[in-house]
Amino acid sequence: MNLGTRKLLDRSFTSVGIGSIVIMALALMVVLVPIVTNGLGAVFFTGTVEHRKMLLSEFNRGDSRELETAIASSDRYRAKVYEMLSGFESEMAAMTPERQDEYRPKYGQVKTAVQALLGPLPGDPEPMLTRFKYGQTRWEKAEEKLHDLLYETKWDNSDPNAMSKEYFANRSESFAGTSLVKLFPYVRENMSNMLLPEFTVYWGFITDSSVDSHIFGGIWPEIQGTFFLAVGAMLFAFPLGVIAAVYFTEYAKSGFFNSMLRSANSTLAGVPSIVFGMFGLAFFINTLKVSESKSVIAGSLTLAIMILPTIIRAAEEAILAVPKTYREASLSLGSTKWNTIATVILPAALPGILTGGVISLGRAAGETAPIIFTAAVSVGSAIGLADVFSSPTPALSWNIYNLASEHEAAAQIRHVQYGMVLALVSIVLLLNLSAIVLRARISKKLKG
Amino acid sequence: MLMTDDVTVTSPDVPAQKSTREIYLPPARKKITGGGTPHIVAKEFSIYYGEFEAVKKVSADILSKYVTAIIGPSGCGKSTFLRSINRMNDLIPNSHTTGSIFFDGADIYGRYTDEVLLRKKVGMVFQKPNPFPKSIFDNIAYGPRLHGVNDKKTLADIVERSLKKAALWSEVCDRLDKNALGLSGGQQQRLCVARTLAVEPEVLLLDEPTSALDPKATAKIEDLIQELRGSYTIMIVTHNMQQASRVSDYTMFFYEGMLVEHASTAQLFTNPRDSMTEDYITGRFS
Ligand SMILES: Nc1ncnc2c1ncn2[C@@H]1O[C@H](COP(=O)(O)OP(=O)(O)OP(=O)(O)O)[C@@H](O)[C@H]1O
Ligand SMILES: [Mg+2]
């Protein structure tokens, strides 16, 4: 091959390499940017007076004196709304039955919208569900609710050949000629007076438990559950994996049995995680009966089995990478094999072993499928350390799925979902980062 | 005191062959007391790698407290023979031995021999310096700790004594807690000698200990061997004929796995019995 072609090939290879890295970085940005921006929205947002009310009565946090003045001031503006509502009710009572029938459903919608925006109306009985006890706690949600109040969503079916089209009809038009028309501009103009929005930093999102299945509150039970599950998995898998790796590298003779073990290990690494989930349910819960039903311990054991092959592989590679000369030096000084492993080989292999361990820890924290049947519940409070043998736990990975797909008010609490995703991604990234730092530290110490 | 190759260069009119012989004359050395008994005895000793017989039916007596050099062309089984004395060949799968080799009268490959105890008594320094990635102190203290010395003061004493014996103390005494991999190659090799001495072995096996070192560091190691001579039974594999003649009392010449000649260094280099030995030491083949 002549020089020209060689250089051309070199150059084109370089550009393809750079190109693929750029594409990867872009893909990462596309994934991470919305996660970070939306996730941060769970902690930093414009909160309303309803949020402060909720914090005070659910978590007993905040300045009650200050809140009282705020409520008093917002109530002054709200009173007008309620006045208009009851005014219209009496107006309706005086109407002919036909007109009453015409207005009642429309009025019902208006009332519901006001309730959603401002919370229960005065004189209403205390709602059963916490989610109905408060108005909108977040300003951007309040604006959505305001839209619901001002406009009615309708479908245009006039063209039979086209898909029906969504459009918004002004509610004030349906109440033309009644006293209620004044309500709509009033609410629009006095939104901030009634809800008193202000910039809020809600660190409690990380440390609070959830209230009424994540409608309010934070994600601490999920964070803690993820932590318990992942750390529990490590407690089982790490020592086992290192011992297995030592066996494979130092003690196993090359024979049928051992090559079987090796290929079993490689196969295990490729098994889909949902299979581990089923296995965990069938083996740990139904057969071994480590717990009555789902529990942290069952989930940890399942995750441990899942990450075991990775840990073994990483540890094996790290041990094999230890120079032969260390082993010779140690043995020639009259060290036993076991002593050589414990005092020379494992310390020298430690950076690699730990890196594998931490990466597996990240994987255990992020996996959903293995814990669906063995450990995860969608709603629950943070469990104590003593309960890990009997209680299931919420966990970030499972709850992200649950909130996105199964939650009855999924659209209402997107910010919680994003917050969870951000928390999970941060935890995994943090773990991987610490693996890198740890590795660098130890390697530096070893190299002197 | 040390003779060098320069002799041939500075006297070009002297026939090369003749002068080569002269350089190999071993220098005068201090007298050894209490040594000279057979310490390691090989009888019809062979080592196989699979089917291949790397060391063939070697019989020899290695005398205690003296320095024995092993020379021979590459691949002739020098390292294999040396490593068999402290059973480092055990690490190589498929290797086995026939015949026997005794250390202090006990069969090294005997069924009841504890190879760990044997290695404690028969220390080894390798071709490439191989300190552990630990501090200088921990490197030296590794062996003693292994054998049950945990007292800080005792360990510190052992470390100091061993480093002094290895002529390294003055160079490293102020940085004992630094990583040993930061030392120079020659210092690392002396550290390895010190590490071996710290276990208080009776025999010191050196497999080309200076092949990775520059002349200055080599001279230091050779001086060190002179220092240790008389206290330890020393066996040294070397490719350097001058080095063999400088440091050893006895020399073994191996060729293709066979022990061709084993005699006092003075005799082997001045008046070899075997023509093959003569060819080798005069550089007719290597
Ligand atoms: N692990 C091994 N497996 C198989 N054969 C080996 C092994 N080690 C060495 N040999 C063979 O045994 C013979 C003797 O090797 P040895 O290393 O003892 O030679 P040597 O005299 O030390 O050579 P050098 O001077 O190059 O170090 C050589 O032919 C070599 O190829
Ligand atoms: Mg060799």
Automatic annotation (TrEMBL), chain A:
Alphabetical list of InterPro entries matching this protein: MetI-like (IPR000515), MetI-like_sf (IPR035906), Phosphate_PstA (IPR005672)
Any GO molecular function? phosphate transmembrane transporter activity
Q: Member of which family? A: Belongs to the binding-protein-dependent transport system permease family. CysTW subfamily.
What Gene3D superfamilies does UniProt report for this protein, alphabetically? Answer: MetI-like
What Gene Ontology cellular-component terms does the record carry?
plasma membrane
Q: Does this UniProt record's set of keywords contain Ribosomal protein?
A: no
Under the heading PROSITE patterns, the entry gives: ABC_TM1
**What are the alphabetically sorted keywords of the record?**
Cell membrane, Membrane, Transmembrane, Transmembrane helix, Transport
Residue ranges occupied by any ABC transmembrane type-1 domain in the UniProt entry: 223-439
Record carries keyword Lyase = no
Q: Could you tell me the membrane topology recorded for this protein? A: Multi-pass membrane protein
Name the record gives this protein: Phosphate transport system permease protein PstA
Q: Name one Pfam family in it.
A: BPD_transp_1
One of the GO BP terms on file: phosphate ion transmembrane transport
Q: Where are the transmembrane segments?
A: 20-45, 227-248, 268-288, 295-315, 340-359, 371-389, 418-438
UniProtKB/TrEMBL annotation, chain B:
Pinpoint the ABC transporter domain residues. Answer: 40-281
Any one Gene Ontology molecular-function term assigned to this protein's record: ATP hydrolysis activity
What would be one Gene Ontology cellular-component term for the protein? membrane
A GO BP annotation: phosphate ion transmembrane transport
Q: From which domain of life does this come?
A: Bacteria
Transmembrane region positions? none
Q: Which InterPro entries match?
A: AAA+_ATPase, ABC_transporter-like_ATP-bd, ABC_transporter-like_CS, P-loop_NTPase, PstB-like
Q: Does the keyword 4Fe-4S apply?
A: no
Q: Which CDD domains does this chain map to?
A: ABC_PstB_phosphate_transporter
Q: Which UniProt keywords apply?
A: ATP-binding, Nucleotide-binding, Phosphate transport, Transport
Please name the NCBIfam families in this protein's record: 3a0107s01c2
**What is this protein's name?**
Phosphate transport system permease protein 1
